[in-house]
Design goal:
By secondary structure, this protein is mainly alpha-helical. The protein has one domain: Up-down Bundle (Na+/H+ antiporter like fold), CATH 1.20.1530.10. 69% of the residues lie in helices and 3% in strands. It has a two-stranded antiparallel sheet with strand order 1-2. α15 packs antiparallel against α17.
Length: 427
C-alpha cells in the first residue's frame, strides 16, 4: 500500500511574538478584570467595612534612598509608582505604532490622528462650557479614552465590525494617550525644581549613552529609570512620565536579523545551557519594545490597572451623595464631554478629513461604524480617573467627577454596543 507523503513541518519560527495580537488579547481580557475591580471598590466603599477601605489606602509607606526618604500613602504609591509601569507600556506601544504600526505611514496615520484631536478638543470644550466656572482645572478629564474597555466593547460586538475599525480605534486611542501624556506634563505639573529636573534629564542622557555603547543589561536601565522617576517626582513633574520617556527610548529594532538565526539552534532545549542560549536568541531576534510589551503588558492589564481602579474608584454612594452629584456641574460636564463630545468630535473631525481629501476612510468602515467607534472612545476610565486625582483638589469634587466618569463610561459603552450591533452585515 502506497504511503501518503506527510506534509513537511514548518521550521521553528524565530519571531514568536505577535505584538498587536498579544496587545489586543491582553486588553480585552484585562477589561473584564478592570470591571470586576471597579465593582469591588464600589461595593467595598459602601459596605460595613467601608472605613477599612480608606484606612488601608491611607497607610503611609516610607522608602529611604540614602539620606532621602519618600513617604507616600499606598494610594500614591500605586498612582505615582505602579502606574509608571502602565505608562511605560503605553510608551512602548506608542513607539511600536510610530515605527512599525498604524502610525508609521503618514497617510494611514492621518485619519486616527485627526479623529483623536477632534475627540479631545470637543469634550474639553463641553466640559468648560458646563463647569468652566466651578472647576476649570478639570477640563482634561473627559479627553481620555480607556483602550482596554474600548477594545473590549469591539470584542463584545465581534464580527459585526470590520477589522479596519479595530485598527482605527486602536490608532485613535494611542494618539489620545499621547495627548493625555502631554496634558499631564504641561498642565498638571507643579512648580518645577530645576536641580531635580536636571537629574531626570541626566538619566535620559545616560540611557542614550548606554544604547550607543550597546549595553544590554536590563538591570542598568531599571536603575536609571528609577533615577529618572525620582528626579521627576522631586522636580514637581508627574513621575509617571518617566515610564513614557523610558518606553519611547526602548530600541524598536532587533539586535540581529531573524534570518541570521539558525532555526534548529533556536529550538534546542536539550539541556540548561542550550535553553539559556535559546532564550538569548529568541530575545535578540525581536526588538526590545516587542519583548518588554510581551512580558509587561499582562502585568499592567491584569494587576496594575485593576489595582489602580480598586484604590481610586471606591466612593460612597448615598442618596445625599447622588443628589449632590446630580446637581454638580462637574458631573454633567464629564458626562456631556464623554457621551456627547467624544463621538461628536471623532465623527466631525473624521468627516472633515475625508471630505477635504487629506485622508481616506478605511475599507469597509461605514458612518454607523464610525459613530460606534466614537461612542466607544467615550469610555474614559483609567486615565480619566488618573487626571481627576491631579486636577481636582477637593474630595467632594473628585467624588462628583468619579461618579460622572463611571456613569458616562457605562452609557458610552451601551451606546457603542447598540450602534455597532445594528450592523449585522457590516453595513
Amino acid at each position: 500500500m502506497e504511503r501518503r507523503a506527510q506534509p513537511r513541518r514548518p521550521p521553528p519560527a524565530v519571531r514568536v511574538l505577535s505584538p498587536l495580537r498579544d496587545f489586543l488579547a491582553a486588553e480585552v481580557a484585562g477589561a473584564a478584570v478592570l470591571a470586576v475591580a471597579a465593582v469591588a471598590a464600589l461595593v467595598w466603599a459602601n459596605s460595613p467595612w467601608a472605613g477599612g477601605y480608606e484606612r488601608m489606602w491611607a497607610t503611609v509607606v516610607r522608602v529611604g534612598i540614602g539620606d532621602h526618604t519618600l513617604a507616600l500613602d499606598l494610594r500614591h504609591w500605586i498612582n505615582d509608582g505602579l502606574m509608571t509601569v502602565f505608562f511605560f507600556v503605553v510608551g512602548l506601544e506608542i513607539k511600536r505604532e510610530l515605527t512599525d504600526g498604524h502610525l508609521a505611514r503618514a497617510r494611514a496615520a492621518l485619519l486616527p490622528i485627526v479623529a483623536a484631536v477632534g475627540g479631545m478638543a470637543v469634550p474639553a470644550l463641553c466640559y468648560l462650557a458646563i463647569a468652566g466656572r466651578t472647576a476649570p482645572h478639570g477640563w482634561a478629564i473627559p479627553m481620555a479614552t480607556d483602550i482596554a474597555l474600548a477594545v473590549g466593547v469591539l470584542a463584545v460586538v465581534g464580527s459585526r465590525v470590520p477589522t479596519s475599525l479595530r485598527a482605527f480605534l486602536l490608532g485613535l486611542a494611542i494618539v489620545d494617550d499621547i495627548g493625555a501624556i502631554v496634558v499631564i506634563a504641561v498642565a498638571y505639573s507643579d512648580g518645577i525644581a530645576a536641580g531635580w529636573l536636571a537629574v531626570a534629564a541626566g538619566s535620559v542622557g545616560a540611557v542614550l549613552l548606554a544604547r550607543r555603547l550597546e549595553v544590554h543589561a536590563t538591570g542598568i536601565y531599571v536603575v536609571v529609570g528609577a533615577v529618572c522617576w525620582l528626579g521627576l517626582h522631586e522636580a514637581g513633574v508627574h513621575a509617571t512620565l518617566a515610564g513614557v520617556v523610558m518606553g519611547l527610548l526602548a530600541p524598536a529594532v532587533p539586535r540581529w536579523a531573524p534570518d541570521l538565526v539558525d532555526g534548529e539552534e533556536l529550538a534546542d532545549v536539550s539541556d540548561v545551557e542550550a535553553a539559556r542560549q535559546t532564550t538569548a536568541l529568541a530575545r535578540g531576534s525581536v526588538s526590545v519594545v516587542e519583548w518588554l510589551q510581551h512580558v509587561l503588558h499582562p502585568w499592567t492589564s491584569f494587576v496594575i490597572v485593576p489595582l489602580f481602579a480598586l484604590a481610586n474608584i471606591g466612593v460612597e454612594i448615598s442618596a445625599a451623595g447622588l443628589g449632590e452629584a446630580v446637581r454638580s456641574p462637574i458631573t454633567w460636564a464629564i458626562v456631556a464631554g464623554l457621551v456627547v463630545g467624544k463621538p461628536l468630535g471623532v465623527v466631525a473631525a473624521t468627516a472633515l478629513a475625508v471630505r477635504s481629501g487629506v485622508a481616506d476612510r478605511p475599507d469597509g468602515m461605514r458612518r454607523s461604524h464610525l459613530l460606534g467607534a466614537g461612542a466607544a472612545a467615550g469610555i474614559g476610565f483609567t486615565v480619566a480617573l488618573f487626571i481627576t486625582e491631579l486636577a481636582l483638589p477637593g474630595e467632594a469634587q473628585r467624588t462628583d467627577a468619579k461618579l460622572g466618569i463611571v456613569a458616562a463610561s457605562l452609557v458610552a459603552a451601551a451606546l457603542a454596543v447598540g450602534v455597532l450591533r445594528r450592523n449585522p452585515d457590516g453595513g
